[in-house]
Specification:
Blueprint (H helix, E strand, L loop, with lengths): L4 H4 L7 H13 L3 E5 L6 H10 L7 E4 L12 E7 L5 H12 L3 E6 L2 H5 L6 E3 L10 H15 L7 H16 L6 H6 L5 E7 L3 H15 L4 E5 L13 H4 L1 E6 L6 H16 L5 E3 L6 H23 L7 H10 L4
Parallel strand pairs: 1-2, 1-3, 3-4, 4-5, 6-7, 6-8, 8-9
Helix pairs in contact: 3-6, 3-9, 7-12, 9-12
The chain binds 5-phosphoarabinonic acid.
5-phosphoarabinonic acid binds next to loops.
Length: 327
């Protein structure tokens, strides 16, 4: 599934009814956009939110809980995302959105969520994937809808998909660095992914992928916040087998680049081994998606080396069965 990441970016489209409704909502105006989803179904929204932040004046928030913040009312648009369409927290937040009279869009393969929405409210996903592996598919559809809702020009994702294929060929030859070389540094260690701005959700995604695919502990943080707390713990990283992995960006200005250099200098003085993943794209969108794909490959490679099956999430499924009263 990770192998077809670039193809998944181009799979499916947002149907015309949905786009026309989005145009109508945009013309009428809205107070904000609220993204709802859990786990693998939340990441595309987190990534979109980070990318849109510098482009739109409309506030975009995300919720990973049973209920929506009190501020969300009929003047808001709520994008409810669940790959299965049956996730408890997501369905509860959906009910909340309906009760408050918000405009709703649902992104799903089916399930209960699909039964609760109208034709011009649903973006239907292809089934048969793991939710987390469907990220490029969910992202392209969500991002298209969000750009339309916020009045931003459409983005041609075929150029991005082509870039991902070229970048992947290069990194598999070790240029500038191979996912396997990162995995080698992670055996029996705990990665701490650190990202700046649009790469902060990528750091979070990388942590989740190591958790779910390799069934291994992982942490994440974001810079500059890292420098105001996490850095104080760096003297214990080596003993705790924590390996900080900094996701670097071409878009870092002098101030941010200096901050990251100073941060890693302090941590090295504390005995921490630091890994850096250089920027793998030329703008925020390609850099984000390339870093996600790169870290996805790290997580799957780590799963292989640890001898675990990346595709099953036994504990998540067991938990959902218990909560559904199925023992
Ligand atoms: O990756 C996974 O399988 C999970 O994180 C799921 O995405 C999460 O449990 C939510 O389920 P769904 O995506 O079906 O709403």
């Amino acid at each position: 599934m990770v192998e077809i990441f670039p193809e998944l970016l181009l799979r499916g489209s947002v149907n015309q009814d949905v786009l026309e409704r989005a145009d109508m909502i945009r013309e009428r105006g809205m107070q904000g956009i609220c993204l709802v989803g859990m786990g693998g179904s939340s990441i595309a929204g987190e990534v979109s939110r980070a990318l849109l932040q510098g482009e739109t004046e409309i506030p975009v928030i995300s919720v990973r809980d049973y209920r929506l913040p009190q501020a969300v009312n009929r003047e808001w648009t709520v994008l409810v995302v669940s790959y299965s369409g049956n996730t408890e927290e997501t369905l509860s937040a959906f009910d909340d959105a309906r009760r408050r009279g918000a405009e709703i869009f649902a992104v799903t393969t089916g399930g209960r969520l699909a039964e609760l929405v109208h034709q011009d409210e649903i973006i239907r996903l292809s089934s048969g994937l793991q939710p987390r592996a469907a990220l490029p598919h969910m992202f392209s559809l969500e991002y298209t809808l969000l750009r339309r809702l916020t009045g931003l020009p459409e983005v041609d994702l075929s150029d991005v998909a082509a870039h991902l294929k070229r970048a992947r060929e290069a990194w598999r030859d070790g240029k500038p660095i191979s996912p396997q070389s990162i995995t080698s540094a992670l055996i029996d260690k705990i990665p701490l992914f650190v990202g700046w701005r649009h790469l902060a959700p990528v750091a979070y995604r990388a942590k989740c992928q190591v958790n779910e695919n390799a069934k291994a502990p992982a942490l994440y943080s974001e810079i500059p916040e890292f420098d105001h707390n996490e850095i104080e713990a760096s003297g214990r990283y080596s003993a705790s087998r924590i390996v900080p992995i900094f996701l670097r960006s071409h878009l870092e200005d002098e101030r941010v680049a200096l901050r990251i250099r100073a941060t890693t200098e302090v941590m090295r003085e504390e005995g921490a081994d630091i890994v850096e993943i250089p920027s793998l794209g030329h703008d925020s969108l390609t850099e984000t998606l390339a870093a996600i794909l790169f870290c996805d490959e790290v997580s799957v490679d780590l799963a292989d080396r640890l001898g675990v099956d990346a595709t099953i999430v036994r504990r998540i499924e067991r938990l959902k069965r218990i909560l559904a009263g199925e023992g």
